[in-house]
Structure formats: structure tokens, C-alpha cells
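Blackboard transcription, Thursday session:
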Amino acid sequence: MPTVLIVDDEELDRKVLHSILLSAGYEVVGTARSGEEGIRLYSTLHPDLVTIDLMMPNMNGMEVLIKLMKDNKDTNALICTSAHSDPVVDLAMRYGAKGFIIKPFQARSLLSTVKDVIGEPDPTRMNIWNF
Amino acid sequence: MTRVLVVEDEAIVAESIASKLRRYGYEVLDTPPSGEEALEIAEKSRPDVILMDIHLAGEMDGIQTADRIASLYHIPVIFLTAYADEQTIARAKDAGPFGYLVKPFRERDLYVTIEMARERSRLEAELEAANKELDSFSYSVSHDLRAPLIAIDGFSRILEETYAGYLPPDGIECLNRIRQAANQMDQLIDDFLRLSRVTRAPVQIGPLNVSKLARDILGGLAAQDPDRSVHWKVEEDLQAFGDPGLCEIALKNLLGNAWKYTKNTPDARIQVGSTMQGQSRVFFIKDNGAGFPPEKANLLFIPLQRLHSPQEFPGNGIGLATVQRIIHRHGGRIWAEGFVDNGATFFFTLPEEAE
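(Written on the board underneath:)
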């Protein structure tokens, strides 16, 4: 069953993302409140996918991505951002991000991005909600 | 037409107030005798102003009803009451009323109070809307300005890591400068956001151990900068009242400055203490560092104003502006004395009792 780690400093965003992924049938194995915590959790949990918020204090999402990709080039990472900037998109792709999730989260497009990277969720875990 | 709700348990009084209001051209929505009924009507018809007796029929009194209304809607409440004792006035004050008229009152006073309440309520709503807008503006500034900075830093990093072999040393130096500038701007955005938060965050006053706070901060500075040897002296038992979070930001800035501006001083010293000025206690933070020209003391607190070059002492000129806002929000004063190469002293006051 595909597992996900969420890295986001904003509690509300963590909760929303968590509940969307959960009700679609993905297993959220961890949530981190900072880039540093995210890197720590990633190395112990080895999730199939990590979602990384771009705007975080201290260590921003790009730095997290660069570090994770350096440690393991097979990392599946999605960058979450509300600010659209083509150079940022290009930069993240060069560093190996698999895609972007635009904030505020929209279940349908978010799940289709996630599905493209790690495949369908476990159908037996799927909530009755249909996005 | 201004729609008024009159909450009054005595029918005759209610009718008399209502007829006065009508004479002034107000529409009287209803005259419920209890707080419970008043809440129902407020929910349904959203009056522009509520005149509230304090003694009411039903379980709730007028002050409780006003409290409830203030928490639910933006409707100004004016108390109309025969009570004028200190205890009632103190309770009524907490409900945040827009006026307090003691019966018997003059018709003209009723009119003036209603008009003032309407205007104040309108201004408060405007202010709240402006603050909300400012919040979302700060949020988008931080995100929209930062994204390109992340790209500038990241692409420079790629150049540095991947193409360094193609660049002469001066080219690499240019890249370093680009990354440095991007990081400076990132810090600047961060500091501006902190300044705007400090201006609007609610101030929650509690007891404050200034001595302990100062010692903790100085200890932290020493740990971050183990190569420096700074002698500091903090007066014991400095007590005040203030918002712990905001005061920590203020002291961190002041002590951080003292630390920074003594970096070229042999035998660097920082002193935290207090002195009496008339009836009030004045705290001070004194150092023997670079100081500043005395005639420029008033420029210190203006955002982005710097009296030293960034090469001499790094910084962006937002710290002291932040400190000043914090002290002013506590109703305190802050000023500074200094001489070139002869140290600086920052004086400030804080509330001496909890409101």
C-alpha cells in the first residue's frame, strides 16, 4: 500500500492534505512540521512519496528536496506551493521533484498528481467519498 | 434609517424611549423585556444599534446579553441604566459598550450617543477589514517575494556545483555575491514580517522577570559566539509587567545589538540594570561598543535607517524599529544615549503593574 510523508510548517495545511490522502486510500505514515524534521522522518520511514511545502522558515522546501535527492536519487517528492514562479518549478524539476501541488489544495488535481507518481491507492481502504 | 432595538423590562419606560427615538427619526425594531428575546431579534433582524437596560426580565442581565452580542455580531450596544455604582460600571466596561447613559437622561444625549456609537462602530469595522487585508497582503508578500529568491539561490547553486570548472575565480566570487544578496533579501522579508506581526499581535500582560530573561539571552549569545569574551552584569531581581513573547523579541534585539557593536572593543562589557526617574523605574542596557553620534539618536528607531555600514556591522535597520513598537504597545517609552566609539545605552520603561 503506497505510503506518504507530509512536510509542512502550517498545521492546517498538514491536516487538509492528510485527510484528502487518507480518504482516497493512501497511508500517511508521518507528518513533519519543519524541513529538518522531514529529513529525519524520511530516513526512518522510507515512504513511497514525500510532499514538501516550499515556504518554511529556516530550511525551505527546496533545500529539503536537494538534501533528500542527494541522499537518495530515487526519492519521490512533490513540492507544495501557493506562489507560482516558473523558475522555481524549473529548479525543483532539475533537482528531481516529480511534480507540484498547488495551494490551496484541491482534492481532484492533487490526487491525480499523486496517482501519477505512486499509482492508485489501496481500493479496500478507499473512503466512500468520491472526489 | 437607523434601526434601533430597545431592551428594557419595564414596558412604560420602553415605550417612552421608543417614542423619543421615533421623534429623532429612528426606526424602533422592537422592545423585548429579556436578554434571551433580544438575542433572538438580534439574530433575525440585525439592528444597527442596541439600547440595553442592565436589569432585565429573564435569566441574563443586560451586561451578559451585551457580552454575548459582542461575541456574535458587530452591533454597537449602549447601556441605559439607573445604576451608576463602581461595580456595575466596571462590569459593563468589560462588555465593550459604545456608550453608557444614566437614567434619567436628556433626549439630546441619547441622540448624540447613538450617532457617536454608529460612527465608532463603522470605523472599527473599517479598521478590522483593513487589518485583514494587511494580513493577507503580508502573507502573499512573503510567499511571492520569496519564491523568486529561492530560484535565484538555487540556480546559482547549480552553477557553483556543476559548472564551477568553467568559471574563473572572479566568476565564482560573483556567484557567491548573488547568493549572499538573495539570502540578505530573504532575511529582510522575514524581519519585515516580524515587524508587522509585532504591530498587530494582541499584547497579553503578565509578570516578567527581566533579569532572568536578559541572562538567558546573553547566555544564548555567548553559546552562539564562543570566540568572543564579553563581560556582562545583570542587576538582580528586575521585575516588570509585559507580554513575555514580545518582550523577549525586544530584549533579544537590544542585547543582540550590544553584543554586535562591541565586537571590535577590547574588554567588551554589557550591563543590564535599572534606575529611578521620578516615580517610574527605567530599565537600561549599556555597552562600551561602537556607539553612535549623539545628534543622530532619534534616527535609530526609524525602519531601515542605519548609522553604520553593513561592512562594519551587518544588519538591516529593522531591529530597533521593532523594539520601539513593542515598547510603545506596552505604553512604555524608549530612548538612547551614545557617543562615537564610547558605547551606547538604551533606556526603556514597561508597565509596573498588571493593568
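Lecturer's comment: The interface with chain B takes residues 54-55, 57, 60, 62, 66, 81-85, 87-88, 90-91, 94-95 of chain A (CB under 8 Å).
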